[in-house]
């Protein structure tokens, strides 16, 4: 998912999309309720782990949007943490390839 990561990601779908590390039982990618502009591993309670995928303009790419659908998971560059900020149409840092 989007370059090199330390973990393998497992994508699952139901009402929402979710991303877990290594297996469906691994920690999920989430947003802390106290700081929804961050994305981190949700270990414990206090996280939203609900995401939705929408088609991006680049062939085969998607936007990973938060549960409200207004903000997108954003790659801020090598060695920098991910963020969840306002979706910008065509922004390549917000376009992901999810198998």
UniProtKB/TrEMBL annotation:
InterPro entries cross-referenced by the UniProt entry: Ricin_B-like_lectins
Domain of life: Bacteria
Name of the protein this chain belongs to: Uncharacterized protein
Native source species: Embleya scabrispora
